[in-house]
Specification:
Number of strands: 6
Distance between the termini: 23 Å
Radius of gyration: 18 Å
Number of helices: 10
CATH architecture of the largest domain: 3-Layer(aba) Sandwich
Shape: elongated
Helix content: 40-55%
Largest sheet: 6 strands, parallel
CATH class of the largest domain: Alpha Beta
Strand content: 5-15%
Structural class: alpha/beta
Order of helices and strands: EHEHEHEHEHEHHHHH
Number of domains: 2
Oligomer: single chain
CATH superfamily of the largest domain: Response regulator
Length: about 220
């Protein structure tokens, strides 16, 4: 059973989410929280696989809670569920460690898909945000010089893009005419160079750097 906690200060919204989840085999809502502090206290007591988290909450806001979750419980997936559709919120959520970002207006159609995407180890972004996020990246590159960051080779960037698109090492090797072991070595070197631990962190890096558009997984 995949254990889900709902962190949302509006009880009616929590009820709506629960109705969607309760009809999906293998998913179970094991807890609810009306603010970020309640959420963290719950996570300290009970095992959880996924947190569905609103950004705007009293006591401890959602993004601060997300950072704490990833610091204390790195194995817990965090899906932001919010009304905020400005791309800056998405960028801040990914920087805080969120694994997915779903707009409330998309929730009825996309919630189950978002959870399945996170369970599969991929990043999920609400469909309504893809075009706006692309515009944000173009604008940010015009207004500010790019940050130097770690020195990546053209081959490493190419591999990062393919990983972020969900390709396995074997598939990447076939596309680039390289051996599986060579791709694995590149992957290890990239993760070390960027100081990243997980594949999802690499996907977030690719999105934040503008290597790929943030489209729904």
């Amino acid at each position: 059973m995949y254990r889900v906690v709902l962190a949302e200060d509006h009880a009616l919204v929590r009820e709506g989410i629960k109705k969607i989840i309760q009809d999906v085999p293998g998913l179970q809502v094991v807890g609810e929280a009306a603010n970020g502090q309640e959420l963290l206290e719950f996570l300290n007591r009970f095992p959880v696989d996924l947190v569905i988290l609103d950004i705007s909450m009293p006591v401890l806001p959602g993004l601060e809670a997300a950072r704490e979750i990833k610091r204390k419980h790195p194995g817990v997936k965090v899906l932001i569920l919010t009304m905020h559709r400005m791309p800056e919120y998405l960028k801040d959520a990914l920087a805080a460690g969120a694994d997915g970002y779903l707009l409330k207006e998309d929730a009825a159609r996309e919630l189950v898909k978002a959870m399945d995407t996170l369970r599969g180890g991929q990043i999920y972004v609400s469909p309504l945000l893809s075009g706006e996020l692309a515009h944000l990246y173009v604008q940010s590159r015009r207004e500010a010089p790019p940050s130097p960051g770690p020195a990546l080779t053209a081959r490493e960037i190419q591999i990062i893009k393919l990983i972020a698109e969900g390709k396995s090492s074997r598939e990447i090797g076939e596309l680039l005419f390289l051996s599986f072991r060579t791709i694995q070595n590149h992957r290890t070197k990239i993760m070390r160079k960027l100081n990243l631990k997980k594949n999802t962190d690499l996907v977030k890096y690719a999105i934040l750097q503008g290597y790929i558009a943030a489209t729904p997984a």
